[in-house]
Amino acid sequence: MSAPTSHQPARAAGGRKLMFVSTVACQVLALLRNILVARMLGPHEFGIAAVIILTIAFMDSLAAAGPQNLVIQAKDDDRKSLLGAAHSVTVIRGVGTSVMLLALAAPISQLFGLELSWAAIVGLSVSSLLLGFVHHGTRMVQRDGDFRPDALTQLGAEAAALVVAVAAAFVTKSHMAIVVGLIARSAVTVAMSQWLSPQKYGFNWTKSYLAQFWSFGWPLLINGPLLFFAAQADRLFISRELGVAVLGVYSAVMVLITSPSNAIMRWLGTSFTPALAKAFHDEGRLATKGVVYDFTALFVVSAFLMFAGFAAIGAEATHLLFGKDFATSAALVALVGLLQILRYLRAWTSTFAIAVAASRGILISTIVRLAALPLGYVGLRVMGGLPGLLTGFIAGEVIALVVSQLIVNRNAGRSLLEGVNTTVTFCVLAGGLIFLLPLLDASLVLRILAGGVIGLVGAALLLATISTGETVARAGPLLAKLRHRL
Questions:
Q1: Phi-psi sector, 441: left (phi>0), alpha (psi -120 to 50), beta
Q2: How far is residue 372's CA from residue 376's CA, in Å, rounded to a whole number?
Q3: Can you tell me the distance from the alpha carbon of 461 to that of 376, in angstroms, rounded to the nearest whole number?
Q4: CB of 250 closer than 8 Å to CB of 386
Q5: For 207-225, how does the pLDDT look when each residue is reduced to its tens digit (9 = 90+)?
Q6: Residues 343, 465 contacting (CB under 8 angstroms)
Q7: What number of H helices and E strands is found in the chain?
Q8: Cα–Cα distance between 302 and 194 in angstroms, integer?
């Protein structure tokens, strides 16, 4: 990577702040879009909309070669050639995904027990085709700490999706509103990326650069569909075994926890990946200090605080925001929240894997993650209903997270079990809170109190498990300032 110029630190600081604000704003816009559309459509149509989103996510997973990640991670200084090759790969991906959508969208929707109209299928195909022409220059400049173009592109795309999807839902009262919103988001993403990228858009078909992308991306090509099935099998089971209306309620609850978790995950992954890659290139390993400690602490603590807060108020928030048709119990909401937070934590280890170019490790951990499928089925049959299904999938996610840590540790020059104690502590604390919820289900005040106390105590314990010495060193100056002010 080229040396930063004198004005880059200030630009980078401003870019990270803008990226954080933009990421939070994007998730707020996405949450608002889902709330408004769900209230207009109801559980059944919103359940169909959830299947549409899953369908396009599956198609994208078939072509997830990750060129936008390699342009950040790679050492290659020939940026123009590397960027052109990324565009070549992305166009191939867009065209391929669009064709596969036309061929496979109908069978996939039937797998969920539904039949999508050709209008919806063609709309999804157009959305994927448009994304093939996105300009990765907005990602390339992150190597120099400039996150502004990418932040503004994401923000503009989500704003367009909100306006178009809500207007379409008001007019059509059908799941086509989601399709139209996805097309609007893709179109604005491409337009703004082309406008804001400082580099000229172009292609490069040089074999050496394409081979570089292939070497990095082929495990991700296999990992994509496997990851989709591992992450979305719960919705497949719900749709086929419990019905599309239950899927609509489940999707509404999931939206409330994925909105903040996705915002934080995207911000942490985007802003820390360049620094983690640099730390690995400089030291040859990812030691738990400096930027590695900062990233881990922010990821793990934010995950637990989100879970504790969602367990406390998630049931009331779902009822208030989506309406009485989406109401459910606090304990069930907490199980949904824990499943999503464990998936959120997988991005903790996946970001490490991207930083050290260990894409094969991501593939292996995803294969292990498929263990959640039989475990979910066993839970559904033994315990019954949605609670049994979620319990089985949670067990599978825990196993996959631990295996992912072991693989990343080997590739990142860390001790084999580093971070596993943090995962175990997290699961014990989360399980204890879920155990308390049935006793506190009737009292929101008691749930908030329990969530607050366990959240704060758990955050302190998790920081200690990450690195006691580093935690004490960071806490010392903060405690001294607090004592001084008191």
A1: alpha
A2: 6
A3: 30
A4: yes
A5: 766 666 555 554 555 555 5
A6: no
A7: 17, 0
A8: 34
* Contact yes or no for 87/158 (Cβ under 8 A): no
Contacts of 441 (CB under 8 A, 6+ apart): 329, 330, 331, 447
Gap between the terminal Cα atoms of the chain: 46
| CB proximity list for 246: less than 8 A, separation 6 or greater | 43, 47, 238, 386
Determine the Cα–Cα distance for residues 168 and 103; give it in Å rounded to an integer. 26
pTM of the model: 0.65
Largest CA distance in the chain: 67
Q: How far apart are CA 280 and CA 331, in angstroms?
A: 41
Q: Among 363, 295, 401, which Cα is nearest to 66's?
A: 363
pLDDT, tens only, 380-427: 788 877 788 888 888 888 888 888 888 888 877 788 888 889 999 999
Q: Report the alpha-carbon distance of residue 322 to residue 338 in Å, rounded.
A: 20
Tokens of 264: 């934080």
State whether the Cα torsion 337-340-343-344 is positive or negative: negative
The residues, any chain, with a CB within 8 Å of residue 395's CB and separated by 6 or more, are 372, 375, 379
- Name every residue whose Cβ is closer than 8 Å to that of residue 291 and which is 6 or more positions away in sequence: 272, 275, 276, 279
Query: Which SS3 state, helix, strand or coil, does residue 117 take?
Result: coil
Rounded to whole angstroms, what are the CA distances from 267 to 18, 23, 189, 196, 310?
10, 6, 18, 19, 20
For residue 342, what are the contacts with CB-CB under 8 A and spacing of at least 6?
394, 397, 398, 401
